[in-house]
Amino acid sequence: MSAIVSPGQWSAVRAAYDAAGQRFLDLAATVPPQAMATKDWSVADTVAHLMTLSRMAVDVARRQPNRAELIAATTVDTVAGLNDALMGDFATRDVPVLLKQIRAEMDELLRVTADATPTDTVAWLGGSRLSIAAVHAHMMNEFHIHGRDVALATGTPWAVPPAEAVLFFDLFMIGIVRTGYGILLENGIAPPSGRVAVQFRSKYSQPVTMVVTDGVVSIEDPGWDVDVHVRFDPATLNQIMFGRVTKVRAALTGKIQVWGRRPWLLLPFLTYVHMPS
Fold it and tell me: How far apart are CA 243 and CA 265, in angstroms?
């Protein structure tokens, strides 16, 4: 199945990638580099991480990725090893230098994909195939997630526009299932038994149903045979998927609403269909 990318989504994700990246650069330039952005990474480490991902995105789009074998073998649960390897290629933690490099890589990705067909696919983690549009959506979300980390750690304002955040859900999360997710989800966790269908909807996108059938993930058009309905705020759902916000907190604040004939199946579904946290 091929990716689905409308002309509007393609122009929107390119603009959102550029805007999110620049917001992150502006934020990182104004906070202490030694401040701890996460349990393990300082602001400087986080900036270095985003530098390596920015360069990887360009290399992937060119179809010339560094460490191609490691990328192909990496799953969502072993991505830390890939991050360590990529960050080891850049010893500097000089934030101004890294920020300048990130901006250069951002400009290069926009340049090399300016005339690309957004539904064309490239090799990505775990032998998956990622559309060119999803490459932009992935990097946009990395800026969103790590910008939030840095902002929370340093008491700095940070906002993620929902119209940007939903592009990650539509183009990356749904897109990678359509184009082929390879071994990306292989982690030893047993999938939900039988068929579990979860329909996702938000005010920023059309409803779509993701289905796990005996461990195989697929996408269906909205229909009647749905176990769980989820109405979501896009930024919150992305933060849940990357372990930044708990499902309980999201539900209590109304950012995620769940109902249906078997709503309890959402937890094992999201345990199986998950992202690094």
Answer: 19
